[in-house]
């Protein structure tokens, strides 16, 4: 479950600014090498300076017992192609309290659909474990981070799409 939540988080927080970026990576191989170095360093430090996960991203935030008080610190943990992505960093926290997806045109506040269509940066978290069954595809605006840490969240039924807003 934690792996799914982390995958979901990085999928939607790290890709948007990259896709809309006007400055492509000069040498993608250098980025890949940096990721491998970071992973190897994290594994070498198991039992010494890490929290014991062997994953540099997890080690970056899991060592802090109060991680839930500063969720956006995770954005500083990114490595690889997403390391400069903004996602919902510095945006307000939006708490999904309602797992329903009844009205795709006028979604209720508290739903995931309502969160992702907002025009402001948002760090989206979940109040509790939930299964969200999408009735229609979910189209996300730019600068959103979907952070499933601390809850078991499953999104099913339809596709999720990212549509960057050009600035």
Low-confidence stretches: 1-22
Order of helices and strands: HHHEHEEEEEE
Q: What is the total number of structural domains?
A: 1
What level of helicity do the residues show?
25-40%
* Top CATH class: Mainly Beta
Briefly note the CATH topology name: Pectate Lyase C-like
CATH architecture: 3 Solenoid
Total helical elements: 4
The secondary structure category is: alpha/beta
* Head-to-tail CA distance between termini: 35 Å
Strand neighbour order, sheet with most strands: 1-2-5
What is the CATH superfamily label? Single-stranded right-handed beta-helix, Pectin lyase-like
Shape: globular
Strand content range: 15-25%
Average pLDDT, rounded to a whole number, is 79
Organism: Vitis vinifera
Protein name: Putative pectate lyase 5
GO molecular function, one term: pectate lyase activity
Signal peptide: 1-20
Written overview of the protein:
InterPro entries: AmbAllergen (IPR018082), Pectin_lyas_fold (IPR012334), Pectin_lyase_fold/virulence (IPR011050), PEL (IPR045032). Keywords: Lyase, Signal. Belongs to the polysaccharide lyase 1 family. Residues 1-20 form the signal peptide. With 167 residues, this protein is an alpha/beta fold. The chain has one domain (2-162): Single-stranded right-handed beta-helix, Pectin lyase-like (Pectate Lyase C-like, 3 Solenoid), CATH 2.160.20. Helices cover 28% and strands 16% of the residues. It has helices spanning 2-19, 28-44, 56-62, 112-116, and strands at 92-96, 122-126, 130-133, 138-140, 144-146, 153-156, 160-162. The strands form three sheets. It has a three-stranded parallel β-sheet with strand order 1-2-5. A two-stranded parallel ribbon has the order 3-6. Strand 1 (92-96), helix 4 (112-116) and strand 2 (122-126) form a beta-alpha-beta unit. The termini are far apart. The model is unreliable at 1-22 (pLDDT under 50).
